[in-house]
Structure formats: structure tokens, C-alpha cells
Design a protein that fits this description.
Elements: H1 2-16, H2 22-49, H3 58-71, H4 81-105, H5 108-138, H6 146-153, H7 160-164, H8 183-188, H9 191-203, H10 209-220
Helix pairs in contact: 1-4, 1-5, 2-5, 3-10, 4-5
Length: 221
């Protein structure tokens, strides 16, 4: 369903595209990609840094895979397409569906008024949907299609060498895993350490306490 909506939206965007709006639409599309990268970093940071696998529901289903990934980073490469991408694809369906609804239900004037915003949401949804696949490619060192390697080399999607920085213990930096564009500037302004300090001050929780326990388990085993 998600892939179908992507295709339908792409067709409708091309159909309604006006050349005079190129710069605005390009800026909106770029903003969508940047937002997706930040979202990937924020959720990755939250899952890596806080909580415990012992938490009901959330621990087993959301946090545990992140803990295991630091012990066995290449395990993601053994996941099939559905296991890798199903959750992210599902999240974007309502947003992609809404864009289609706008195109088929609004007047031409209303479509053009919302066109820039819908381009932003479309690219945001595309890159959110593809985040786990891009992350999987960043851990795949053999058999990648040439076009994927080219996108990595051009840093259009997360490069393999770039993502290795995150996998150096204690896994406290370079959390953005869609394009990785925001990792360097967020590192320079100490965004994550400041956020962790604020959370620890308010809650008393120590960042990555549970993740360190899992790292010790992995070293022992």
C-alpha cells in the first residue's frame, strides 16, 4: 500500500508541477529530507540512550533490537525486506494517503496553495519510509547494487564509513541514519550531550545505562 501511494503521489506531483515554483519546491523537498534525518536521529538517540529492555511492551518490541544491534551490527543485513521496512512504511501511509486525497478532492487553486507543503511531506515520508533500508545498506559491505554505492559515495544517503563513527562504544554520537547530513552540525553544537544533561537533570536517569549492560553481556559471551 505504501509503495503504491508513493507511486501515485509521484505521478500527481509531476502532473501538477509548475516550473515557476521550482526553487520553492526544491527547498521544501530539501526540508523534508532534513526533517527525516533529524527524526531518525532523535528516535535512534532516544532508543539507544534511555529506557530498559525490561519495560513492558516497549522494551521488548522497540528497545531490545537497538541493544542487540550494538552487539551484532550486521544482524540487520540478515533481515528480509518486510522485517526491515514494514514498521516505517506503515507509519507513512496516513500521510501519503492524505496527499493523494488533496490531489483528487481539492480544486486546482487549492492544490497549488498546498503544493509546496505536500512536496515537503512527500519527501519526508519517502525518506522516513526508507530509513531502515538505508541503515541496512550502511552495514552491507558485499553485493550492494552500484546505484546504492553511488548514492552512499555522494552522501545522498547514509555512507558506510560515516555510520561506523556511531558504532564506536559508547555509541553516543552520529545518531542520524537517513542521510547523516545532520550528524556533523549536531555534534559541533553538542546537541545530544546537552539534551542528555537536561533529561538527566529532570529525571535522574543515567544515559545509556541499559545499553552498557548489554555491551558487557556481549563482551562476556
Amino acid at each position: 500500500m505504501c509503495i503504491t501511494l508513493m507511486g501515485v503521489n509521484f505521478f500527481l506531483i509531476i502532473k501538477n508541477f509548475k516550473l515557476e515554483n521550482t526553487n520553492t519546491i526544491a527547498a521544501a523537498a530539501f526540508g523534508g529530507i532534513i526533517t527525516a534525518d533529524f527524526c531518525s536521529g532523535f528516535f535512534h538517540w532516544a532508543a539507544d540512550t534511555w529506557g530498559s529492555v525490561d519495560l513492558p511492551v516497549l522494551g521488548k518490541n522497540f528497545l531490545r533490537p537497538f541493544r542487540q544491534h550494538h552487539i551484532d551490527p550486521t544482524s540487520i543485513t540478515r533481515h528480509d525486506f518486510i522485517e526491515t521496512n514494514g514498521d516505517n512504511f506503515m507509519v507513512t501511509i496516513p500521510f501519503l494517503g492524505r496527499i493523494v486525497w488533496d490531489f483528487i478532492s481539492l480544486s486546482e487553486e487549492e492544490i497549488q496553495k498546498k503544493f509546496t507543503w505536500n512536496c515537503y511531506v512527500f519527501l519526508l515520508a519517502i525518506f522516513i519510509a526508507m530509513t531502515n533500508q538505508i541503515h541496512k545498506w550502511s552495514h552491507t559491505y558485499f553485493g550492494l547494487p552500484g546505484w546504492v554505492v553511488l548514492l552512499q559515495d555522494c552522501h545522498i544517503i547514509l555512507p558506510r564509513k560515516h555510520h561506523r563513527i556511531h558504532h564506536v562504544a559508547p555509541h553516543e554520537t552520529y545518531f542520524c541514519i537517513t542521510t547523516g547530513w545532520l550528524n556533523w552540525p549536531l555534534e559541533k553544537i553538542h546537541f545530544w550531550p546537552i539534551l542528555e544533561y537536561l533529561v538527566e537533570t529532570v529525571t535522574g536517569c543515567k544515559p545509556r545505562a541499559d545499553d552498557m549492560k548489554w555491551a558487557q553481556k556481549g563482551s562476556i559471551s
